[in-house]
Amino acid sequence: MFDPKKLLDDLLGSQVPGMGGTVRDKAGQATQLAKDNPLAAGALAAILLGTGTGRAIGGSALKLGGLAAVAGLAYKAYQNYQAGQPPTGSVPTQPELLPPPASTGFDPAEAPQGEAEFTLVLVRAMIAAARADGHVDDAERARIADRLRLSGMDEEAEAYLIDELRKPVDLDAIVGAAVTEAQRVEVYTASRLAIEPETRAERGYLDMLAGRLKLPDALVDHIEATVSEVKVPIATGAQAAPAPKSPW
Length: 248
What we know:
Layout: H1 4-12, H2 23-36, H3 44-49, E1 55-57, H4 59-64, H5 66-82, H6 115-130, H7 138-151, H8 155-166, H9 171-177, H10 181-194, H11 200-212, H12 217-230, E2 231-233
Helix pairs in contact: 1-6, 5-10, 5-12, 6-10, 7-8, 10-12
């Protein structure tokens, strides 16, 4: 069985191997690397979720790793919402993101269905969000499959991703798999991390997801603001390191 946590790390561009520079720089480097050489390790976010939005995850969220980052962002948004604070929106400096404390419901180790199983729920939620604008057609799935086969990723993980891209989006299953209030917040957070809602279809999907998850509008606003704090322009930081040209 493949490692669901590693797959989520790859999808979020977390802990990308083989690149120097600061953690903040790596967000832009990872996306540029995926553009120049989509066969490189750590480029799954760009391959599966697209690069047209011009933003990527940066700061301490990138360093923290996919599962802990989703949980930490969801917990932070929920705490701010519970405290009655106004959504902060985007800020010029990246705040330090910490994993959620134990016994809060947001600690991945406390997932009732098990950490690995809930990680796959988040992966499915991200893929569903990425497909909201309808750009993953048969031709795109074939291109993704070719790239994954050449990327050196685990065969089981590759097969899982291709299968998820082939199946119709099952929103009922995604929503139903979030069995606690904390997990409902995390599912929306992961979905929002996957895309920048620049089309009506993407914005409509996120609104529908929030409604199905029964998230109050004020809480959704906090999630949006918290996610925006860790999304940085691709051009931020040092110039991306030149990537080797693919023979394909």
